[in-house]
Write a structure and sequence with these properties.
Elements: H1 2-19, E1 20-23, E2 48-56, E3 61-71, E4 78-84, E5 115-123, E6 126-127, E7 129-133, E8 139-148, E9 153-163, E10 171-174, E11 177-180, E12 186-187, E13 190-191, E14 194-195, E15 212-221, E16 225-228, E17 231-238, E18 241-251, E19 256-259, E20 263-269, E21 272-278, H2 283-303, E22 311-317, E23 322-325, E24 328-332, H3 341-353, E25 362-363, H4 370-387, H5 390-408, H6 428-450, H7 452-466, E26 470-471, H8 473-484, H9 489-497
Parallel strand pairs: 2-15, 21-22, 22-24, 25-26
Antiparallel strand pairs: 1-20, 2-3, 3-9, 4-8, 4-12, 5-6, 5-9, 7-8, 10-11, 11-19, 13-14, 15-18, 16-19, 17-18, 20-21, 23-24
């Protein structure tokens, strides 16, 4: 009987550890895609990236070998294909898209530029003609060997070498690791306006992409730990190297972070494994981050719709704020202090909400940045309402959003046009005030006019109809009008368009 009791205790401990664990080793496996209903998307028409990366820590460079299976889903035959080369935006400190104008605090003498050198572009075993242009050399133009007919596919093979910049930003390295956001050649989107060849603006999140399937192999020194989008399928040692095999189905971008200092803690929440990778060895803050992630996933699953991926990763890294990528978010190490828990919670909640608004329901963040940022900012209010109660949610909205807007707008003049492209914003001040705050006030007005239940119906319907797709402002407004059976012309003019007509 005593032996059985000991055995029971051992089995119980194993079960607990399988649900919540803290370590520096291999993460638990989970299915990459846990929702099988992919919103009537034809799986045979999804592009695929297969990328092999070899990281050299000593020189802070990496080599990439990338095959892209591209399907011509446009309405024309294509003679050319375009890719964004975002690393080239970091060639010059003065021009680098460093968040919140933080480049002013970086010494030009210590700054090491980042850039990408394309070495080969091959189609069907033949090297193609290609050129690099666009603003700051961030566009790769490939001339196809022959026209790619509508509905047909082709494979493009690229080889490249990349130098990482000295920035604690989306892309760059710091004392305790490396952030790999927007780090590889990614296809430009061809839509009703043709190819979108927008520059890497210094304000906002200037990205626009389509969901694709990813298979990524990353080779690093043996002591490096990787956090990434998607699901780490395997992690194997080979001499003094470590090879990570990662899969990411139906995601619109792929990001990762690398550090030898990461502490990992993870927990299964509903059907998703939430993982925290931290460069700060503070168990209380790691636990708090995991709990915030858990509450966020549960809240947004219930209200917006099921999170479709089996893994969600929160990375504590050197970074100026918070940044979202599919399945992974970067959270500033500056917030990992016990007296900043409320700020840490807000940032993690915001970036987690972006998994729904931008990650799963995509949009053109260059042309209509309010569409994901406004919904995401108001998702903070929804989270507080569900987790901390209505009183706290009202206080948060009134003080952090409404009052903040009313106080700051007097300094920005009469320009209240929210729905406009990045090129029309002056800088981070008016961008933040309009795209985040004023846009969130528009969502709150929907709640005030039609009720909380109706707002939740709108958000759920919008999510279900546009998950894995790219939506536009008119799509969101159409959902609002369908659910409420009311014209939104007046609200759109008041909150989004100013004096513009819808």
């Amino acid at each position: 009987m005593k032996k059985n009791k000991v055995l029971f205790i051992i089995l119980l401990l194993i079960t607990i550890l399988s649900l919540t664990s803290c370590k520096q080793g291999k993460p638990l496996n989970a299915d990459a895609l846990i929702v099988r209903n992919i919103n009537e998307i034809n799986e045979s028409k999804i592009n695929e990236y297969r990328i092999n990366v070899d990281l050299d820590i000593e020189s802070m460079t990496y080599e990439g070998k990338q095959t892209v299976s591209y399907i011509n889903n446009t309405d024309i035959d294509l003679e050319d294909i375009y890719f964004h080369l975002y690393p080239n935006a970091f060639k010059s400190l003065a021009d680098a898209p460093i968040l919140f104008n933080m480049e002013e605090k970086i010494s030009s003498l210590s700054y090491e530029s980042g850039y990408m050198d394309i070495e080969k572009v091959i189609q069907n075993g033949k090297e193609l003609e290609w050129s690099i242009g666009g603003d700051k050399d961030t566009i790769l133009h490939i001339k196809l060997d022959k026209s790619l007919e509508k509905g047909k596919s082709t494979e493009l093979y690229l080889e490249y070498k990349v130098k990482l910049p000295t920035t604690k930003d989306r892309f760059g390295y710091h004392d305790k690791g490396i952030n790999f956001g927007n780090w590889y050649p990614i296809l430009c989107v061809y839509d009703e306006n043709g190819w979108n060849l927008d520059p890497y603006y210094k304000v906002g999140d200037p990205f626009y992409s389509e969901v694709s399937n990813y298979k990524v192999s990353i080779t690093t020194p043996k002591d490096i730990i990787i956090a990434s989008s998607g699901n780490i399928v395997s992690e194997n040692r080979k001499g003094d190297k470590k090879i990570y095999e990662i899969e990411g189905p139906l995601i619109r971008d792929f990001a990762w972070a690398a550090s030898k200092d990461f502490i990992i803690k993870e927990k299964k929440v509903e059907d998703t494994m939430i993982k925290v990778y931290s460069i700060t060895n503070d168990s209380n803050l790691i636990n708090e981050s995991l709990k915030i992630g858990e509450n966020s996933i549960k809240t947004f699953n219930k209200i917006f719709g099921k999170y479709p991926y089996g893994v969600y990763t929160i990375v504590n890294t050197e970074f100026p704020s918070g940044m979202e990528y599919p399945g992974i978010v970067f959270i500033s190490n500056d917030y990992f202090h016990k007296h900043l828990i409320s700020i840490l919670e807000k940032v993690i909640v915001h970036e987690t909400a972006h998994q729904w608004w931008y990650g799963i329901v995509g949009n053109n963040q260059v042309k209509e940045p309010w569409l994901d940022e406004g919904l995401t900012t108001y998702s903070e209010v929804i989270y507080i309402n569900e987790v901390h109660g209505k009183k706290k949610a009202k206080e948060y909205y009134d003080q952090d959003i409404k009052l903040g807007y009313e106080y700051a707008v007097q300094y920005l003049g009469e320009n209240e046009v929210v729905n406009k492209p990045l090129s029309e914003f002056i800088g981070w001040d008016d961008y933040g005030l309009l795209v985040y705050t004023r846009a969130a006030m528009f969502v709150d007005r929907i709640k005030e006019d039609f009720g909380e239940e109706t707002l939740y119906k709108i958000l759920n319907k919008y999510y279900e109809e546009y998950k894995f797709k790219n939506a536009r402002t008119e799509d969101f407004i159409k959902i609002c009008e369908e659910v409420t059976n009311t014209s939104f012309n007046g609200l759109v003019k008041e909150y989004l368009n100013g004096n513009k007509n819808r």
